[in-house]
Write a structure and sequence with these properties.
- It is a single chain.
- The protein is an alpha+beta fold.
- The protein has a domain at 3-80: S16 Ribosomal Protein, Chain: A (2-Layer Sandwich), CATH 3.30.1320.10.
- The chain is built from three helices and five strands; from the N terminus they run E-E-E-E-H-E-H-H.
- It has helices at 56-64, 71-80, 98-119, and strands spanning 3-10, 17-24, 35-40, 52-54, 68-69.
- A five-stranded mixed beta sheet has the order 4-3-2-1-5.
- 15% of the residues are buried.
- The mean pLDDT is 88.
- One of its GO terms (cellular component) is cytoplasm.
Amino acid sequence: MAMKIRLARGGSKKRPHYSIVAADSRYARDGRFVEKLGTYNPLLPKDSEDRVKMDMERVQYWLGEGAQPTDRISRFLEAAGVLPKKERANMKKAEPGKKAQERAAEKAEKAAAAEAPAEE
């Protein structure tokens, strides 16, 4: 079994509430799971103690059994000091798209052409 530690969504529309579960990766996101390990409520303020609650003993057990945490869960575990911090960098995220780069290049060319005759 390929085990994962992941979030299972609950709550009503626009009011999410997540359970942190250990589940087989082949099961549906909100479907069957092996064990509930904690809760996550994104509606609470970031400094609230109740925002993320985890049974760290059981999480350690599942990590020892080879369960892979999802990205969001690994961030929670890094904040708790269980996992070492990963280097995350998406340098291309801040770059504009191809068309926006083309428009900026055209605008720069027009500006340079407009300045050249004005200097003479």
